[in-house]
């Protein structure tokens, strides 16, 4: 007979002890939820992703997603091991099962095979350029013209994005850079016509390196974005625990609060938060 069964039996035979026994049973059950934790440290690749994930001079992580991670750590008591790597390397680690969790992750069919996505937002892809050059470039929805278009390695936004990238590559106008900082520096120096990316992925880099006003031309909807939990490296119990914590309303309220407090208006255009 389990504890709750014994408590119910006591209620029948000794009514005066009923409420005390039932309350103790509830508290024991709740304690098990509160103190549930992962079976091992959770490996999380760490690379700058706009305002979602920032990395300080001493390697200290920050950003909107890190605000959510703080909530998850408190709720689950899991320990997270952040590994500083470039974004393209981060995805290779996740796809191979070396990493357990990806922050600021865009959905794709291939990634769905490797992990389970908890959705927090639905971003857009935009052309980002200097306002002083907008009339000269005259960018349209197909980025017609002769100006160079920069993309950032490791950032993928679905079939429509891939199709546009392929067209630009065939036109020999496509330039691939390693990170948002490099793209922002090229834009500031006049060596990039526009950057093709989700605006939030470029926020921190533009605020740091670009002093001129910019324009943002929304081009296409991107797939869902959020946190990927590995199917290949996490056991079922750990993945279920983390999924429940990321799906909780507190995590989404934290994300929304950090988003509204930190994201400038030009970067928030077209981003839909998912509760």
Q: Count the DSSP helices.
A: 12
CATH superfamily of the largest domain: Periplasmic binding protein-like II
CATH fold name of the largest domain, please? Answer: D-Maltodextrin-Binding Protein, domain 2
Number of domains: 3
Lateral strand order in the biggest sheet = 9-8-10-7-11
User: Uncertain spans, ≥5 residues at pLDDT below 50?
Assistant: 1-35
CATH class of the largest domain: Alpha Beta
Task: Give an overview of the whole structure.
α1 runs antiparallel to α2 and α3 runs antiparallel to α11. Mean pLDDT is 88; it is low at 1-35. It is globular, with a radius of gyration of 23 Å. By secondary structure, it is α/β, with parallel strands linked by helices. It has a 5-stranded mixed β-sheet with strand order 9-8-10-7-11, with helices on both faces. A hairpin with a 5-residue loop joins β2 and β3 (61-62). The protein has 12 helices and 13 strands. It has 3 domains: 3-32, no CATH class; 42-121 and 224-273, D-Maltodextrin-Binding Protein, domain 2, CATH 3.40.190.10; 124-221, Periplasmic binding protein-like II (D-Maltodextrin-Binding Protein, domain 2).
């Amino acid at each position: 007979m389990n504890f709750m069964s014994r408590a119910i039996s006591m209620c029948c035979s000794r009514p005066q002890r009923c409420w005390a026994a039932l309350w103790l049973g509830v508290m024991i059950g709740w304690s098990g939820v509160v103190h549930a934790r992962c079976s091992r440290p959770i490996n999380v690749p760490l690379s700058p992703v706009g305002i979602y994930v920032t990395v300080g001079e001493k390697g200290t992580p920050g950003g909107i997603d890190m605000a959510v991670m703080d909530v998850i750590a408190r709720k689950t008591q899991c320990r997270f091991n952040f590994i500083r790597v470039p974004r393209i390397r981060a995805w290779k680690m996740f796809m191979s099962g070396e990493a357990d969790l990806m922050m600021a992750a865009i959905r794709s069919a291939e990634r769905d095979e490797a992990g389970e996505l908890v959705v927090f937002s639905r971003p857009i892809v935009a052309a980002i350029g200097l306002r002083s050059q907008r009339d000269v470039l005259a960018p349209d929805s197909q980025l017609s013209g002769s100006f160079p278009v920069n993309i950032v390695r490791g950032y993928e936004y679905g079939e429509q994005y891939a199709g546009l990238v392929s067209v630009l590559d065939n036109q020999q106008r496509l330039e691939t850079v390693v990170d948002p900082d490099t793209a922002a520096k090229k834009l500031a120096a006049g060596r990039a016509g526009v950057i093709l990316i989700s605006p939030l992925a470029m926020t921190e880099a533009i605020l740091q390196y670009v002093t001129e006003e910019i324009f943002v031309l929304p081009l296409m909807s991107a797939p869902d974005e959020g946190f990927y939990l590995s199917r290949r490296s996490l056991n079922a119990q750990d993945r279920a625990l983390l999924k429940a914590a990321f799906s909780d309303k507190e995590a989404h309220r934290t994300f929304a609060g950090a988003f509204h407090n930190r994201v400038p208006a030009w970067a928030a255009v077209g981003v839909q938060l998912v509760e």
